[in-house]
Specification:
The protein has one domain. The chain is mainly α.
């Protein structure tokens, strides 16, 4: 009788092992996918916060032509305002660099979707003279791959 109980317990252990292993693998894959998606949303939220901060800066400095929609008649800026515009565009370059590094590889559908929007947004700015001037002054301080991307984008969108 002892041997029979041991045989039953061994059979039950084998069944648990046979059923448990695929369940554990499925659970691992599911958890890994969820963690990846969570990281993607964290990235999105972090960059979105920077974008909202940029929009607030645009509200804080309405006399400068830095907002997404450029002024129909560019303002005449004094030396202080020109410096402020340069500094603010450098902040925007930093946001763009982050978007480029995080999304331009398009390794997931979410990254691909996000990069399409960021690329269009960056391209819009690359057509602006004041933005291009600020880039000429401070652009060399950014990631080499990002610098190359910006140079190509500006050349393609030169007026």
């Amino acid at each position: 009788m002892n041997k029979t109980i041991i045989d039953y317990l061994s059979a039950i252990a084998n069944v648990i092992l046979i059923l448990g292993l695929p369940i554990a693998v499925i659970q691992y894959i599911s958890t890994t996918k969820k963690e990846k998606k969570d990281r993607e949303y964290e990235t999105y939220n972090s960059l979105d916060e920077k974008y909202v901060e940029w929009e607030k800066l645009c509200l804080e400095y309405p006399q400068l032509d830095i907002y997404d929609v450029k002024d129909s008649i560019p303002p005449v800026l004094n030396a202080k305002e020109k410096k402020e515009e340069m500094i603010l565009f450098t902040i925007l370059f930093s946001i763009f660099e982050r978007a480029y590094i995080l999304y331009s590889d398009e390794s997931t559908q979410m990254k691909k979707d996000q990069w399409i929007g960021w690329h269009l947004y960056i391209t819009n700015y690359c057509q602006r003279d004041n933005f291009r001037q600020a880039w000429r002054v401070t652009g060399a301080t950014f990631d080499d791959r990002f610098q190359k991307y910006m140079k190509e984008n500006m050349e393609k969108n030169a007026k």
